[in-house]
Amino acid sequence: MMTRVKICGIQKLKHAQAAVQAGTDAIGFVFANSKRQVTINQARRIAEQIPSHIKKIGVFVNSSREELETTVHQVGLDFVQLHGDESPEFCENLGLPYIKALRIQHESDLEQLKYYEGAHYFLLDSASGPHRGGNGTTFDWGLLKHQDIDRQRFILAGGLNADNVQEAIDQTQPTMVDVSSGVETDGDKDPDKINRFIKNAKERLTCHTHNRM
């Protein structure tokens, strides 16, 4: 099965369209405080122009249930991606399809996964850097080698780019790879880098046979 791709931190329609044309499977809008933050109106205008089969994912940090529900409804999001201190109870009671993001530095950090069994997907990101995500740093992929994790629900993020994505897929066997800063030039999405990243990612096959997203 071909590894799927999410291009995150989309702020402009032209970059969303470039990602779609290159073969992305999902785009991400950042609603948390970030240099890539978008408003509901910005995201909605872009989402309306994107084919329905492309998943629209909103990135949030410690947002209220009301804020999540409002954004999902107004933008037409398929998933909320939660990067904050959201408890398992909060996530389960949301009633929304969610991706739980976890920051990984040590093998023990993977213990958190057992508390979010209800997540449609879990995203593993680097713990290095000042932000909850989008720091452009990798973690030790070797930590996952002997872990019994559900690869069909596993999204890999953190420091990925066109040059290392194939190695990342080979080592970790994710169902999807997530990139933001790795397809940017001078802080702006770069269509050429988007195209190259997606091409390289989709050249790598994973062992999954079940498609949930």
Automatic annotation (TrEMBL):
One of its GO terms (molecular function) is phosphoribosylanthranilate isomerase activity. Pathway: Amino-acid biosynthesis; L-tryptophan biosynthesis; L-tryptophan from chorismate: step 3/5. Gene3D superfamilies: Aldolase class I. InterPro entries: Aldolase_TIM, PRAI_dom, RibuloseP-bd_barrel, TrpF_fam. GO terms for biological process: L-tryptophan biosynthetic process. The keyword Mitochondrion does not apply. Coiled coil: none annotated. Its EC number is 5.3.1.24. Pfam families: PRAI. The keyword Isomerase applies. It is an enzyme of class 5 (isomerase). Keywords: Amino-acid biosynthesis, Aromatic amino acid biosynthesis, Isomerase, Tryptophan biosynthesis. Residues 5-200 form the N-(5'phosphoribosyl) anthranilate isomerase (PRAI) domain. It catalyses: N-(5-phospho-beta-D-ribosyl)anthranilate = 1-(2-carboxyphenylamino)-1-deoxy-D-ribulose 5-phosphate. It comes from the Bacteria. Belongs to the TrpF family. NCBIfam families: PRK01222.1-4 (NF002298), PRK01222.1-7 (NF002300). This is N-(5'-phosphoribosyl)anthranilate isomerase. It comes from Tenuibacillus multivorans. The gene is trpF.
